[in-house]
Amino acid sequence: MTFRTTPISVPPMSSTMLTSKPMRDARTLTRPVFAMPPGACDGHVHVFEAPAKYPSVASPHYTLPDGSLAKLERMTEALALNRFIIVQPSYYGTDNSCMLDALSTAGARARGVAMVGEGCTDEELHAMHLRGVRALRLDLFLRSSWPTADIIAYIEHSVRRTRTIGWHVQFYTPGWVVRDLLPFLAGFDADFVIDHMGYMLERDGLTGSDFERLLGVIRGGRGWIKLSAPYRLATNGDFERLQPMARAIIEAAPDRVIWGSDWPHIPEGGRDTGALLNLLCDWAPDAAARERILVSNPSRLFGFDSPGP
Fold first, then answer.
1. How many structural domains are present in the chain?
2. Is 137 contained in some domain?
3. Contact 86/65 with Cβ under 8 angstroms?
4. Fewer Cβ atoms within 10 A, N terminus or C terminus of the chain?
5. H helical segments located in 1-91
6. How far apart are CA 121 and CA 143, in angstroms?
7. What is the DSSP annotation of 90-101?
8. Within 13 Å and on the Cβ side, how many CA atoms surround 68?
9. Which helix (H) or strand (E) holds 286?
10. Residues facing 224 on adjacent strands
11. In CATH, what number is assigned to the domain containing residue 107?
12. Which residue has the higher pLDDT, 10 or 188?
């Protein structure tokens, strides 16, 4: 895959609040063009409910998305996705109430990824585990201005807190932070997941060499990559150009890749989740590879094969 090779300065995150658009009716979604394997899992969704019960953080990056659990379940039913992973969104910060209540309603077919503050106790972590949480989401966008050494210390501290209950850590992170962490991640003795195919954007100065180094770390270590949110990399909608990247990720770590829709596609609720799922036909033409990405790998990572919450 061709990347821009000249580094450029990284622009700050926009302070403009995005307006979330209405959710596409599940009945209009493109249906899967391949046979969906039983137990297929959407490895990255968010859930939002009534603001009177679940208030947002003081200054969210976007307005309340049209992404209730009821609408999520209609989407997963339409696309034959039997399981899903509810990831805590930045909209709610470290208040995991909405995600936890959604897990309780969804039952054993769902797992959760939480975000917590420093004041979260071991007892609270254990209680979340009993309700189906299996990972800690580390928002490295929020901490991207930190020195790399401080980010590493934050990651190591988070792993120490969750190791005893068997959770992994999930990085929501810009690609340049991934690049700077690669020497550390190469020897990192814990399972970690990188969202959105590594988020290595050309406009942020990432190069083909950076992506190859990421593949090397994933190939030889304990890292996982999530094939999710292709529209956050190919912002012009040209998903075909992501095929070499996706295939290289799958080849590097076939047993440590999962797929996620990033539903409800903030702020573009009208996106066709079915069309995003069908990208797997090009990225993983072999049915056995798709079974690993959709079923076996997420089952192992999130403990679907062990007793449920």
1. 1
2. yes
3. no
4. N
5. 69-78
6. 22
7. GGGTT--HHHHH
8. 9
9. none
10. 193
11. 3.20.20.140
12. 188
C-alpha 269/C-alpha 46 separation (Å) is 12
Compute the distance between CA of residue 265 and CA of residue 263 in angstroms, rounded to an integer. 5
> Would you say residue 19 has pLDDT above 70?
yes
Q: Is the dihedral of CA 308, 128, 259, 109 positive or negative?
A: positive
* Per-residue model confidence as pLDDT tens digits over 221-267: 899 999 999 999 888 888 999 999 999 999 999 999 999 999 999 99
Query: What is the DSSP secondary structure assignment for residue 37, as one 8-state letter?
Result: P
Q: Which of 93, 98, 81 is nearest to 43 (CA)?
A: 81
| Residue 179 Ramachandran class (φ > 0 left, ψ -120 to 50 alpha, else beta) | alpha
Domain contains 92: yes
Identify whether the C-beta of residue 242 lies closer than 8 Å to the C-beta of residue 250: no
Residue with tokens 């790399």: 148
Cβ neighbours of residue 47 closer than 8 Å, sequence gap 6 or more: 67, 68, 69, 72, 86, 98, 99, 102
Q: Transcribe 129-184 into DSSP letters.
A: HHTTEEEEEEESSTTTTS-HHHHHHHHHHHHHHHGGGT-EEEEE--HHHHHHHHHH
Give per-residue pLDDT as tens, 106-116. 999 999 999 99
- In order of 152, 170, 259, the CA distances from 114 in angstroms are 19, 9, 19
Decide if 131 is inside a domain.
yes
Global pTM reads 0.92
Instruction: Tell whether 283 is covered by a domain.
Output: yes
